[in-house]
């Protein structure tokens, strides 16, 4: 596969065209450089990743919460997420699971793999070749926080401040 760089989710933002983008940054910036890998994703995936990264349970399970529950019932866990290559502007990923029958690997969209991996606190790895092709200096990123990010923050504030007595008729 080649050299892999361990990354973390720095945030989910909107690019100037109002498209959702997840920003991944090397855990070891000294060794791997102050750069960011922007990966464009859909709004539902953006919300699902934010909910997991910010550890804010939604009122009803999202698709990735259901998948995580199913994995748990089947005694499987997310071992790691790998963003393996970039082909004509499309990122490709693998989701590696530990199962009772050994390790299994599945092709996945990076957004789905990251949404599941974030719920399991699994490491996220990016091929060095992908970073070399699509990584940008951290200072060059022109994005703004996504409305989902603000909604998740508002929801968290609501959960922190809500009093169950407020709901009694």
Short description:
The protein is α+β, with helices and mostly antiparallel strands and 169 residues long. It has helices spanning 29-32, 43-53, 63-73, 110-120, 128-134, 147-161; strands at residues 4-14, 20-26, 35-40, 77-87, 90-99, 102-108, 124-127, 136-137, 144-145. Strand 1 (4-14) and strand 2 (20-26) form a beta hairpin.
Fold topology:
Blueprint: E1 4-14, E2 20-26, H1 29-32, E3 35-40, H2 43-53, H3 63-73, E4 77-87, E5 90-99, E6 102-108, H4 110-120, E7 124-127, H5 128-134, E8 136-137, E9 144-145, H6 147-161
Parallel strand pairs: 4-7
Antiparallel strand pairs: 1-2, 1-7, 1-9, 2-3, 3-8, 4-5, 5-6
Helix pairs in contact: 2-4, 3-4
Distance between the termini: 60 Å
Mean pLDDT comes to 85
Count of individual beta strands:
9
Biggest sheet features: 9 strands, mixed
How much of the polypeptide forms β-strand, as a percent range?
Answer: 35-45%
Helix content: 25-40%
Please count the helical segments: 6
Could you say which structural class the secondary elements and strand pairing correspond to? Answer: alpha+beta
Shape: globular
| Rg estimate, integer Å | 17 Å
Extract low-pLDDT stretches: none
Helices and strands, in order, run as EEHEHHEEEHEHEEH
